[in-house]
């Protein structure tokens, strides 16, 4: 019988595509749409990192709004408040990556516990995953908002293990973000890096993921081949 694990799936960039915002942005900022989407995402993460270190918590929705304000100013394309509100609403309608349904179904068939694990506010993540068609494929949503801090604080990875009622060694993070993988490994969890971009570089921190896949639907076969 195959060993089963608790699998915590990062949401943004792993289950859904935040850079899909480039499409609605195109009608607002034209050729700056792709750099706008990328900078918005990078600042969103940076703000969560900084607030976690400063212990000046605000939730991820606020980080997202503040990152949007920064991006507009940085790129010199300030938008009316009505357009800002529509963009923030669009964050709840990001598309699921094409292989997610098949991957989660296969992992369920193998007996693995599957939960979303995110910096996002739980209500927002549940709405996003419902709109994307992914929530019904998962057993729970675990948000760092419960602890009022952010990944990669080791407390949040320990919280994932507690919520899934597993030992850290039986708990996996599945993420497309190298920093997230490193955070999970540093906290004693196991981790799969979803290397969605062929040219993506893993940080040289003398920490390695337990497995690297290019798509989530490669994970079930990998687990099936393990003997430990």
Q: From the alpha-carbon coordinates, what is the Rg to the nearest angstrom?
A: 17 Å
| Low-confidence runs | none
Instruction: State the end-to-end CA separation.
Output: 11 Å
Work out the helix count. Answer: 9
Shape: globular
Helical/strand content category: alpha/beta
Average pLDDT score: 95
CATH homologous superfamily (4th level) name of the largest domain: HAD superfamily/HAD-like
Order of strands across the biggest sheet? 3-2-1-4-5-6
- The CATH architecture of the largest domain can be named as 3-Layer(aba) Sandwich
Strand count, sense and barrel status of the largest sheet are: 6 strands, parallel
User: How many domains is the backbone divided into?
Assistant: 2
- H/E element order: EHHHHHEHEHEHEEH
Q: Can you describe what's shown?
A:
With 228 residues, the protein is an alpha/beta fold. The chain has 2 domains: 6-16 and 94-224, 3-Layer(aba) Sandwich (Rossmann fold); 18-92, DNA polymerase, domain 1 (Orthogonal Bundle). Helix content is 45%, strand content 12%. The chain has a 6-stranded parallel β-sheet, sandwiched between helices. Helix 1 crosses helix 2 and helix 2 packs across helix 3. The longest helix is centred in the first third of the chain and has 22 residues, at 33-54. The chain starts with 5 loop residues before the first strand and ends with a helix.
Helices and strands in order:
Layout: E1 6-9, H1 22-29, H2 33-54, H3 60-75, H4 81-90, H5 100-109, E2 113-118, H6 122-132, E3 140-143, H7 154-164, E4 171-175, H8 178-186, E5 190-194, E6 211-213, H9 219-224
